[in-house]
Amino acid sequence: MSATAEAKPQEPSLLEKVVESILTPGSSLTASMQVVINITFVILAFILMGLVFADPENIHLKIMIGLLLGLVFSTNWFFSLILNSDFKAEVEDKAGEDKEPKKEK
Fold it and tell me: Are 52 and 58 in contact (CB under 8 A)?
């Protein structure tokens, strides 16, 4: 094989997908964004658990963990509704209708 052989295009990494998703308006309802959000929730949970072990009498930290669990549940529920329904297709269809020029009567 020669050194000038064409290289296959590499699939973008998770970080590249996230940055592209953030910079594209209205495109953050994807499975890769759900993974990133869940990773940040896990990091936050580890930080809160470490603080609870450092100061076990602080009720505020325990309440924050409860709020975090509610937030994790609600965001994953929302993503499951969006990713498993026709909502995304409806939004794309509506956006396509808005871009089409209006016909004069």
Answer: yes
